[in-house]
Design brief:
This protein has 6 helices and 15 strands. With about 260 residues, the protein is an alpha/beta fold. The chain has one domain: 5-stranded Propeller (L-arginine/glycine Amidinotransferase, Chain A). Bound molecules: glycine. Glycine (GLY) binds next to loops. The site of glycine (GLY) has 11 residues, from loops.
Length: about 260
């Protein structure tokens, strides 16, 4: 079973009411708290439908973006790496996540360099390598530190680039199976997915690129029929989850969970 698409566990965190003050590139309106919760409930129910154990952590009002737990850690089969988010208002979220990872993993290490910044949204784990996109949130020092930390676990890191103006590397791509990637063409044009099978995001549906393969399902944001049909035609079992409110904060399917099978 592929460790990059099949998981026994996920960690999520309930949205704080303070999410209305969350970071966003462009203000497209105030997120509706009830709708966020209803979308989040559907997301968690879908993860659970696969038989996975899903931890729901309580809301953290001090951290408006803390529903986006993916940015706080990288979870690998051998252990977890606690990140150092590059957004100053998000830095403290990582320490809030660390004890929950220690409860499930025997090995938890941390990015500690004061000049190192790295967020989980910039990291795509595949069976053969870990791709990390340099971005406004993830810098060379953070990538170098991650590379050193995961080498003893047998993982290699390849630095790539998050497109300008795009929040995270995985805003624009997802792993669908051991060697198939769903990507926007603005990202795949860089050549970073050479050696992988590619499924292109149809023009105009770029916001659908952030999906997750979680066991038998591909969870994707609702409202992107061309992408849905392309994934279905390729043989994937798609589940559409409402994401209108998290999208106002540049968040998507991957941002809402840490997915792993702890040792
Ligand atoms: N609103 C999510 C982020 O900017 O990190």
């Amino acid at each position: 079973m592929s460790f990059s698409t099949h998981f026994t566990h996920a960690i999520t965190r309930r949205s704080a009411a303070s999410i209305i003050k969350g970071l966003r590139a462009v203000d497209t309106g105030t997120p509706d708290l009830a709708l966020i919760q209803s979308h989040h409930d559907a997301y968690i129910a879908t993860l659970r439908e696969t038989g996975a154990t899903v931890v729901e952590l309580p809301a953290l009002e001090a951290f408006p973006d803390s529903v986006f737990v993916e940015d706080t850690a990288l979870c690998l089969p051998q252990g977890a790496v606690v990140m150092r988010p590059g957004a100053p208002t998000r830095l403290g979220e990582a320490a809030e996540m660390a004890p929950h990872l220690r409860a499930l993993y025997t090995q938890v290490v941390e990015i500690t360099g004061t000049d190192s910044f790295i967020e989980g949204g910039d990291i795509l784990v595949t069976e053969k390598e870990i791709l990390v996109g340099r971005s406004a949130r993830t810098n060379a020092a953070g990538i170098a530190e991650l590379t050193r930390l995961v080498a003893p676990w047998g993982h290699t890191v390849r630095e790539v680039h998050t497109p300008p103006g795009v929040l995270h590397f995985k805003t624009d791509c997802s792993l669908l199976d051991a060697d198939t990637v769903l990507s926007t063409t603005r990202l795949s044009a860089s050549g970073c997915f050479k050696g992988y099978k590619l499924i292109d995001i149809p023009d105009g549906e770029e916001a659908a690129a952030n999906t997750i393969r979680f066991n038998e399902f591909v969870l994707m944001p609702a409202g992107f029929p061309k992408t849905r049909d392309r994934l279905t035609a390729a043989g994937f079992t798609v589940r559409e989850i409402g994401n209108t409110e998290c999208a106002k904060l540049d968040g998507g399917m991957s941002c809402l969970s840490l997915r792993f099978s702890p040792k």
